[in-house]
Design brief:
InterPro entries: AA-Vitamin_Transporters, EamA_dom, EmrE-like
Helix content: over 70%
Number of helices: 11
Organism: Parasphingorhabdus litoris
Subcellular location: Membrane
Order of helices and strands: HHHHHHHHHHH
Radius of gyration: 19 Å
Number of strands: 0
Distance between the termini: 32 Å
Shape: globular
Keywords: Membrane, Transmembrane, Transmembrane helix
Protein name: DMT family transporter
Strand content: under 5%
Structural class: mainly alpha
Length: about 290
């Protein structure tokens, strides 16, 4: 009877982890859609979007967690790396979406994040299996083909900046693997990144018109798809392997692509489908024997 109860609890835990992971991946795709929608319609500039996104997320999480934890929501020395990584990610993310479609940006961001996570894992002594190496190579090759020069290639500068955002996201995700209290860690990271937004104040477009829609999209991105989304991400990270964390994020481009076509009227090229096919094939190989990675 006890064994049956343990089996039931284990199954319930796996279902909860899967649900949290699905919600988190949808939030990640939502960030791409919200950011691109705001910039494509010229309702706000990239720097203002980033500042509002990070500061609104910081305020919401500080209020939410401060009631329970008091002043401990303030950044600490051990939150320096994830706070800087979050700031670099958000800045690069918004700037890249000046020129990239939502689906294209996500297709660049998350493979770069995966490679970053895997490289950090290797430096820490966590090595992929041989077949996972093949998957990483295939996913990387798909990303290179996607970015290669050509008539349908995405803007190179925007693509490279989004790749930088992916690298920063990998560092942020790695920091979350050791978070004992995910919600509190996320709040501290956001408060730290929010303070770093002072560096963006000179870059804000004071001469341009910031429309209410742009502000609203930035706030939703900061409080819901980023703030709450990252809490669920930090909550699920300790439950899964490094390879699962890295590979699962590669489903986000597909979600963002669907949303981009349905909500933003974006079109998908043959290059996108070829690159996606290679990247997703790489996912399958990377997730092989995922429990041991």
């Amino acid at each position: 009877m006890a064994a049956a109860d343990q089996s039931s609890d284990h199954m319930g835990g796996r279902l909860l982890t899967a649900l949290l992971l699905i919600l988190t991946l949808c939030a990640f795709a939502g960030n791409s859609l919200l950011n691109r929608a705001a910039l494509a319609e010229n309702t706000i500039d990239w720097a203002s979007f980033t500042v509002i996104r990070l500061v609104s997320g910081a305020i919401m999480l500080a209020l939410l967690l401060g009631i329970q934890h008091g002043r401990s929501v303030l950044p600490r020395r051990d939150t320096l790396v994830p706070a800087i990584a979050l700031f670099v990610y958000a800045v690069s993310f918004s700037f890249a979406y000046i020129s990239l479609d939502a689906a294209i940006g996500a297709l660049i961001l998350f493979p770069a994040g995966q490679l970053s996570l895997q490289m950090i894992g290797i430096f820490r002594g966590i090595y992929p299996t041989a077949i996972q190496w093949i998957g990483l190579f295939l996913a990387t090759a798909g990303l290179v083909i996607f970015l290669a020069p050509g008539d349908t290639a995405p803007p190179l500068i925007g693509g490279l900046i989004m790749a930088l955002a992916g690298i920063a996201w990998g560092f942020y995700s790695w920091a979350g693997k050791g978070a004992a209290r995910p919600a509190l860690a996320t709040a501290r990271n956001f408060v730290g990144a929010g303070l770093l937004c002072a560096l963006l104040i000179p870059l804000m477009d004071y001469g341009g018109q910031i429309e209410p829609k742009g502000v609203y999209l930035a706030i939703v991105s900061g409080t819901i798809t980023s703030g709450l989304g990252y809490i669920t991400w930090y909550a699920v990270l300790p439950r899964i392997s490094v390879s699962t964390a890295a590979a699962s994020q590669l489903s986000v481009p597909a979600i963002a692509a669907l949303g981009g076509v349905m909500l933003l009227g974006e079109t998908l090229t043959t290059r996108f489908f070829i690159g996606s096919a290679m990247i997703f094939a790489g996912i399958g190989l990377t997730m092989f024997k995922i429990g041991r990675a």
